[in-house]
Amino acid sequence: MNFDQNRIAEMLQDSLTGFELFVVDLSVSDAVRPKITVTLDSEQGLGIDECAQVSRRLARRIDETYGEDATYSLEVTSPGADQPLSDPRQYTRHVGRTFSLKLKDGTEKTGKLEATEPDGIQLAEIVKEKSKQKTLPTVLVPFTDIEEARVVISFK
Predict the structure, then answer these.
(1) What secondary structure does DSSP assign to 36-97, as a single string?
(2) What is the gyration radius of the CA atoms in the chain, in angstroms?
(3) Which residues, 6+ apart, have CB-to-CB distance to 130 below 8 Å?
(4) Quick one: which H or E segment has residue 121?
(5) For residue 60, which of 7, 23, 11 has the smallest C-alpha distance?
(6) Dihedral of CA 145/151/152/156: which sign?
(7) What family does this belong to (predicted)?
(8) What is the DSSP secondary structure assignment for residue 144, as one 8-state letter?
(9) What tens digit of pLDDT does each residue of 1-59 get?
(10) Element (DSSP H or E) covering residue 5
(11) Would you call 122 exposed, middle or buried from its count of C-beta atoms within 10 A (0-12, 13-18, 19+)?
(12) What per-residue confidence (pLDDT) applies to 131?
């Protein structure tokens, strides 16, 4: 059976009613037993209970549309800690954490996320000088300049 990704996306949006969640990614495989993978997030973070509720709602809608005999697997998840951020709304809850940025011009920056703005992030870049680290003044890094952004995981 072929699942229409656009139709699944519509059903997913309906399934998010009442939640302050947004879709980070949706993929539908073309396998014999298709796999529908949904990655969700929110500005406050996402728990397993929300994933489970959205999964049940979406599965119900898929079964109503494609029939209960349709075979597929459904995975509703949140981005892992090691996943790059892909939506500007994901930055809000990470204010105060250290980020590693790859910019579209090929440069890389590491620094503390000081604030988010509608068009970018305020980053206090950390540079190494000899054996010491120095924090530079905060600068605005536009979202349009960011190729990839990852939270630096620290186990201090």
Answers:
(1) EEEEEE-TT---HHHHHHHHHHHHHHHHHHH-TT---EEEEE---TTSPB-SGGGSGGGTTS
(2) 19
(3) none
(4) strand 120-129
(5) 11
(6) positive
(7) Belongs to the RimP family.
(8) G
(9) 688 999 999 999 999 999 999 999 999 998 888 999 999 999 888 889 999 999 999 99
(10) helix 5-15
(11) middle
(12) 83
Q: Are 62 and 74 in contact (CB under 8 A)?
A: yes
Exposed (0-12), middle (13-18) or buried (19+): which is 155, by Cβ within 10 Å?
Answer: exposed
Is residue 9 helix, strand or coil?
helix
Q: At residue 92, what are phi and psi to the nearest 5 degrees? A: -50, -50
pLDDT digits (tens, 9 = 90+) for 105-122: 999 999 999 999 999 999
Rounded Cα gap, residues 29 and 106, in angstroms:
32
Domains and CATH numbers, the chain: 5-77 (3.30.70.1350), 88-151 (2.30.30.100)
SS3 category, 145: helix
| Strand pairing report for 146-151 and 98-103 | antiparallel
What the block records as the tokens of 134 is 């120095």
Q: Name the 3-class secondary structure at 14.
A: helix
Please state the length of the chain. Answer: 156
